[in-house]
Amino acid sequence: MNRKELVEALLKDSDLSNMTKKQADHFIEVMLDTIMRTVKKGEDVTLVGFGTFLKHKKKARLGVNPSTKRRIKIKSRVVPKFKPGKPWKEFMNEKAR
What we know:
With 97 residues, the chain is an alpha+beta fold. It has two domains: 1-43; 46-97, Irregular (HU Protein, Chain A), CATH 4.10.520.10. 38% of the residues lie in helices and 28% in strands. The chain is built from three helices and five strands; from the N terminus they run ααβββββα. It has helices spanning 3-12, 21-40, 86-92, and strands at residues 45-47, 51-58, 61-64, 71-74, 77-84. β3 (61-64) and β4 (71-74) form a beta hairpin. It is elongated. The mean pLDDT is 92.
């Protein structure tokens, strides 16, 4: 599902019939931007029943360049991480009805 399809599903599957596609797209844009800026500051964003977005620091390590087989140093870096919540994990493992 891409962003356009997400906007259409949001409008179709909810009681937001008075919202335009442009408004729904803007809402998604603002929500995602807010989550990204908050996590970048080092704060977790928890959506109960869905999951938690957090900032994760990866340590520096040694790797191998696959084309030359030479060892290379990979610098430490910060990456976003998502931990799904228990209800979502359970939903994903339900048998189809």
